[in-house]
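Follow-up to my earlier ticket, as requested here are the two runs.
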Amino acid sequence: MIERPYEEIVIHDKLIISLKQTVYRYPNEKYPYLKTYTNHPEKHRGVYSINGNYYYPDILVIDLRNEKVIMIAEVETKSTLNEIEAEEWKNFCHLSSHFALFYPQGYEFKVRQLCKNIKIDSFIEYREIEGKFKLEKKRIIF
């Protein structure tokens, strides 16, 4: 895992908190059986892979009725858009039927290069404007 510069750590962790409070706000009235866990800045919930490794994705949504992983999301920053992280994304794709990759605005070409052989179902570009995050779902064609 690549160590992020401090300014990227701040953006990364703020976006994770924002996503938990907005996009992945579980449990809620409609889905009281779902629960969102975050693993930054502290690890709260991980998941085992078939090969026995334990992973801590940035965001993890679990169905509490059967402990099934419903969704995984990773928030990347400029310095973590690299081959090492892309290998981790491959593992996350096998841990859940839904995997969302959040990346900074302006890095779509880099993401496309890194994800040629990875089946990610949601690409979301983010940018911060006046302390709030703007998200845009992208359709990346290879």
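Run two:
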Amino acid sequence: MKIRIKGNSVRFRLTQSEVKLLSEIGSVQEITEFGTHAFQYRVQLMKGIQNLQAAYAHNEIVLSIPETEGREWFQKETVGFEHEMPLSEGKKLHLLVEKDFACLENTAEDQSDNYPNPKLQC
């Protein structure tokens, strides 16, 4: 799982096995260690919500996906989910979670579990 943060925008990208795990057990998580501290980010399914929601507490970002859509995500061709979460003072947090497609250009990163890129012409 990858996370990209820029200003009031957070994007999560999940590999095939992570989307499958999310749909089966309801949660996937990553931890990045900084010496004696750790930063965590998690995507979870949640009952009773209609849109993506995010929270940050105790060095962890948690992105919640409506349970019904998340359980079916692995079986469907849906690329991802997006939502503008309202914040105080009229601000918004842009949330995006999507399937991680293989890059079109060469990269040193292991992409064996990424989704095939639909723009790749074979």
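The only thing I checked on run two: The domain at 2-99 is CATH 3.30.1360 (Gyrase A; domain 2). Let me know what else you need.
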